[in-house]
Design brief:
186 residues; globular
């Protein structure tokens, strides 16, 4: 059950109404997904939205790597809304269906490209070790540059924030989600 569902428009505070209007003006859509619970903190929601716009559309990383990384984060946090939104985008951006399926099942994909392998290793180390090894860091800088490493780190952190927010809020999966994220066993 959704703990933090959409706030009816007649119950929004002035700050929430202003933030919701600014969000829609910037994104062209009403508040959705992780931004529904975040609207309880209007300024945080707007800051998060702006960071997300940069990470999705302004990052130096190729879209395929960004979306692949989002799937890694969604799986790490078992976040079905994040998965439902980004899995189709990742496939359209060039992530192989077998690669996405392995992630969904909690397995290391054996069908990753070299860039995906690097993003997977970087993200997995960051999530599980709370750090990145010298070898993985050097490989990431060599491939993506320092800005790319920071953008990759930002994607991991930003989508973890959204996943945590939706997990706390028990945000409902959008109607008609085509790729449900199965729960991990064990």
């Amino acid at each position: 059950m959704d703990r933090l569902p959409a706030i009816p428009s007649d119950r929004l505070t002035p700050a929430q109404a202003e933030a919701a209007a600014a969000f829609e003006a910037e994104r062209g859509v009403p508040v959705f997904g992780p931004f529904v619970p975040l609207l309880r903190s209007p300024e945080l929601m707007l800051c998060a939205s702006r960071m997300g716009l940069y990470l999705r559309y302004g990052s130096v990383l190729p879209l395929r790597i960004s979306e692949f990384t989002i799937l890694i984060v969604a799986r790490a946090w078992s976040q079905p809304v994040e998965w439902a939104i980004h899995q189709p985008i990742a496939l359209k951006a060039g992530v192989a269906p077998e690669t996405a399926q392995a992630l969904a099942e909690g397995r290391r994909p054996d069908t990753m490209s070299a860039d995906e392998t690097l993003a997977y290793d970087f993200s997995s180390e960051l999530t599980h070790n709370r750090a990145v090894s010298d070898a993985t860091y050097a490989a990431a800088v060599a491939r993506f540059g320092e800005q790319g490493v920071i953008d990759l780190t930002g994607i991991n952190g930003y989508y973890a924030l959204l996943a945590m927010t939706m997990n706390v809020g028990r945000t409902a999966v959008p109607e008609g989600a085509s790729a449900p994220l199965p729960p991990l066993v064990g």
